[in-house]
Design goal:
72% helix, MetI-like fold, mainly alpha
């Protein structure tokens, strides 16, 4: 009897059907998870310190309320609140049950206009402040990193913009360009960036004097790597605080431009409401309900952003809290 050849026996135990995991990818994943854990820890620590600032919490609560009103404006008052031909009331009615804040010279509800105008005022403030901080951060980081004649020329240009009154420069730009909301945003952003550039440049010089920048250069890090990976993350807290403070200034500037008749006449904003009240003679005729609501709304938003900005500054720089 002949025995058939038996196949070789397979080794016992679990077998792996795919390639072994790459050690470099595992290390990268662990480094990424560690970085995210550190970011979450930093945010939690920032929030704990921010909650200790009562004024900052009050400003944050005000901003959340105003933002919700602006987002829900189409649901609260509807889009036809701006219509002049379908105004529900008569001209310049005093506050009543039907119109809690009265009406304007066209018979439109001032409460509805105030709610709808919050969308434009907040949009202009956020976009104009974002443009201003973006320009200032770029100029400040570049001028602080590259020294010598280049930095000198850039800072002399910055000084020229700095001594120029912001409102005057914004008025000139808004007058030369076409009257629209984008013109107002561009005028405010271009006119108000020098302060941020000065602050960011000083912070950039302080950061680049630290030892880890020298190690990065010794390891072959170029200018772009140092500015984006090392300098920019260290100046972002200052940029954040400057942004919150710049939004309130941008809203006030937009209101001033609209009050002077340099805004977009086709949109409703708080500054435009003040301009309409002035043209309607609300000051001389004693129609206080036409002037007070938009003025108080502008003051409330500016105060809320200022309180948040001061609180962020105190958290990021505890020395400020000791001197105040």
């Amino acid at each position: 009897m002949t025995t058939a050849d038996t196949p070789p026996t397979q080794p016992s135990g679990p077998t792996s059907s795919g390639p072994a995991p790459d050690a470099s990818s595992t290390a990268a994943a662990s480094a990424s998870s560690l970085a995210w854990a550190r970011r979450r820890g930093s945010l939690a620590r920032f929030w704990r310190q921010y909650r200790a600032q009562r004024a900052g919490l009050l400003g944050l609560a005000g901003l959340i309320l105003i933002a919700l009103i602006a987002l829900c404006a189409p649901l609260l008052v509807g889009g036809d609140v701006q219509s002049v031909t379908h105004a529900p009331g008569t001209a310049l009615e005093a506050p009543s049950g039907e119109f809690p804040l009265g009406t304007d010279q066209f018979g439109r509800s001032l409460l509805g206009l105030l709610v709808w105008g919050s969308r434009i005022s907040l949009t202009v403030g956020l976009l104009a402040a974002g443009l201003s901080v973006a320009i200032g951060t770029l100029v400040g980081v570049v001028a602080g990193h590259y020294r010598g004649w280049f930095s000198t020329v850039v800072m002399r240009i910055t000084d020229w913009f700095l001594v120029m009154p912001t409102l005057v420069l914004a008025i000139v730009l808004a007058t030369v360009l076409s009257r629209s909301i984008w013109t107002v945003i561009l005028a405010i952003g271009v006119a108000s960036w020098p302060t941020t550039a000065r602050l960011v440049r000083a912070q950039t010089i302080a950061v680049e004097s630290r030892p880890f920048i020298e190690r990065a250069r010794a390891l072959g890090g170029g200018d772009r790597h140092i500015m984006t990976r090392h300098v920019l993350p260290n100046v972002l807290p200052l940029v954040l605080a400057q942004t919150t403070l710049g939004i309130s200034t941008a809203i006030l500037t937009e209101a001033t431009l609209a009050f002077l008749g340099l805004g977009d006449p086709t949109i409703i904003s708080w500054g435009g409401m003040l301009q309409d009240a002035r043209e309607a003679g609300a000051v001389s005729s004693g129609h206080w309900w036409y002037l007070a609501p938009p003025g108080l709304a502008i003051a409330l938003v500016a105060l809320s952003f200022t309180l948040c900005g001061r609180a962020i500054e105190t958290v990021l720089n505890p020395k400020l809290g000791a001197t105040r």
